[in-house]
Design brief:
A five-stranded mixed β-sheet has the order 3-9-8-5-6, with no helix packed on it. Strands 2-1-4-7 form a four-stranded mixed β-sheet, with no helix packed on it. It contains one helix and nine strands, in the order αβββββββββ. It has two domains: 1-30; 40-124, Cupredoxins -  blue copper proteins (Immunoglobulin-like). The protein is 22% helix and 40% strand. By secondary structure, the chain is an alpha+beta fold. A hairpin with a 4-residue loop joins strand 5 (79-82) and strand 6 (87-90). The model is unreliable at 9-31 (pLDDT under 50). Bound molecules: copper (II) ion. Copper (II) ion (CU) binds at residues 76, 113-115, 117-118. Copper (II) ion is lined by residues 76, 113-115, 117-118.
């Protein structure tokens, strides 16, 4: 390999390394809560009597993907609200609605119906 080619090869390696680093940084930005970008998958249903289960748990400081399905037209579960996260979503009947969120370092994330009557929580563990 002549010196010019060697220099070109070094440059390519440097560029590839830089590219890899920037990709990693982007992935961490997308999941600011933890080292793993893979969220904990949880699911609850809501009917006229409340959320089922009304309490679920997830690792502290990690991302969560919560799937909520409203299974009844009775009651007031047509919306779900996460007050501490400023999230409010409509829940069409029998449709899975996905909410992505990050768990706090401790404590829990509460969710309620649109009128704060039905209560559920995700407990950090
Ligand atoms: Cu309500």
């Amino acid at each position: 390999m002549n010196p010019t080619r060697f220099a070109a090869a070094l440059l390519l390696v440097a560029l590839a390394t830089a590219c890899e680093r920037s990709t990693t940084a982007t992935a961490q930005e997308a999941a600011p809560a933890g080292g793993s970008a893979t969220p904990t998958a949880l699911s609850v249903t809501v009917d006229g009597t409340g959320y089922h289960p009304s309490s679920v748990s997830a690792p502290a400081g990690r991302p969560v993907r919560l799937t909520i399905t409203r299974t009844s037209d009775e009651g007031c579960g047509q919306q779900v609200v996460f007050p501490s996260l400023n999230i409010r979503r409509d829940l069409p009947l029998n449709r899975e609605v996905v909410v992505d969120l990050s768990m706090p370092p401790s404590g829990s994330v509460a969710f309620t119906c649109g009128m704060d009557m039905l209560r559920g929580s995700i407990v950090a563990q």
